[in-house]
């Protein structure tokens, strides 16, 4: 069996319990050496064969998988964060499918979650943004024109940009062209959850300068949006004046000293949805 495993964002203890077990049991591990913390490989058996895919082509990775599978070995393909984001797993899965080699996917903690933890941020604050756009600037891998950063920026939702640390000047320009004010709060999180993590708070207009001053050129995420700053509404779900599927309202807005209109049916339904 081949298992694609999410290694988590960096810290050795941020892999899942399942991922940890799979690493311990593996006969072969092919890890994405450019980003996966090599400390995780300490979990492997002494006899485990270890390959660094940073130096391999897709064909070479598949060759190791096919041979290992033929020899009845347990194989882990270790990707950074969660493999579903910029992990290039689909092309591996499709080839394995053609060869009728079974595989599974074990999720991991993506770096965008690690960055939120580093920032002590909630990406979806009531009254500010209820959506997170995960995207990247076009680099050597192009981005479809209809997904240009500027078109997402028009929504003013929280944005998390992968693989864009080398293009911060262009990124600021795109964000501003799309409608973000240059004073909009932003952050650069370098190596989230690694011991050498850096959290740099700045604005949309100062991204490039901030990265330059801190000497950050790669392995960083850019987070943009008002959720990094400013005011927000408290949640309906934990509001004492609010009834949900699991809890009756314990007091009225008047008792709580809240002003504003009565809770609408729509808001009540929304909270019920959230609590499911
Ligand atoms: N699948 C991974 C992303 C792989 S793409 C995930 O879910 O996180 C590689 C990019 O992810 C890097 O260029 C960087 O932008 C980001 N990245 C990965 N690990 C990171 C970390 N610990 N801190 C900040 N950014 C990280």
Automatic annotation (TrEMBL):
InterPro entries linked: 4pyrrol_Mease (IPR000878), 4pyrrol_Methylase_sf (IPR035996), 4pyrrole_Mease_sub1 (IPR014777), 4pyrrole_Mease_sub2 (IPR014776), Cbl_synth_CobM/CibF (IPR006362), Siro_Cobalamin_biosynth (IPR050161), Uropor_MeTrfase_CS (IPR003043)
Xref: CDD domains: Precorrin-4_C11-MT
KW Iron (keyword) present: no
Superkingdom of the source species: Bacteria
Region (Disordered): 251-276
GO biological process: cobalamin biosynthetic process; methylation
The keyword S-adenosyl-L-methionine belongs to this UniProt entry's keyword annotation: yes
Basic and acidic residues bias locations: 267-276
The entry's keywords: Cobalamin biosynthesis, Methyltransferase, S-adenosyl-L-methionine, Transferase
Biological or metabolic pathway of the protein: Cofactor biosynthesis; adenosylcobalamin biosynthesis
Occurrences of domain Tetrapyrrole methylase (ranges): 1-207
Enzyme category, top tier: transferase
Gene3D superfamilies, alphabetized: Cobalt-precorrin-4 Transmethylase, Domain 1, Methyltransferase, Cobalt-precorrin-4 Transmethylase, Domain 2
Family of this protein: Belongs to the precorrin methyltransferase family.
Name the UniProt record assigns to this protein: Cobalt-precorrin-4 C(11)-methyltransferase
């Amino acid at each position: 069996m081949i298992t694609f495993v999410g290694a988590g964002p960096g810290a050795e203890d941020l892999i899942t319990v399942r991922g940890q077990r799979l690493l311990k049991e593996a006969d072969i591990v092919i890890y994405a050496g450019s980003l996966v913390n090599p400390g995780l490989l300490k979990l492997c058996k002494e006899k485990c064969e270890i390959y660094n895919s940073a130096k391999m082509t897709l064909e070479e990775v598949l060759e190791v998988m096919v041979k290992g599978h033929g020899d009845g070995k347990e194989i882990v393909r270790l990707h950074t964060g969660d493999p579903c984001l910029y992990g290039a797993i689909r092309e591996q899965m499709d080839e394995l499918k053609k060869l009728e080699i079974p595989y599974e996917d074990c999720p991991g903690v993506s770096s965008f979650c690690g960055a939120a933890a580093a920032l002590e941020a909630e990406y979806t604050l009531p009254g500010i943004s209820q959506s997170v756009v995960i995207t990247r600037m076009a680099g050597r891998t192009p981005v479809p024109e209809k997904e240009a950063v500027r078109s997402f920026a028009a929504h003013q939702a929280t944005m998390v940009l992968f693989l864009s640390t080398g293009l911060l000047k262009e990124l600021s320009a795109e964000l501003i062209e799309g409608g973000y004010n240059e004073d909009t709060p932003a952050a650069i999180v370098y190596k989230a959850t690694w011991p050498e993590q850096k959290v740099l708070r700045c604005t949309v207009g100062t991204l490039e300068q901030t990265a330059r001053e801190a000497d950050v050129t790669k392995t960083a995420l850019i987070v943009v949006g008002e959720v990094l700053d400013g005011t927000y509404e408290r949640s309906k779900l934990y509001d004492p004046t609010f009834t949900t599927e699991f809890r009756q309202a314990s007091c009225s807005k008047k008792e709580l000293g809240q002003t504003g209109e009565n809770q609408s049916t729509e808001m009540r339904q929304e909270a019920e949805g959230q609590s499911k």
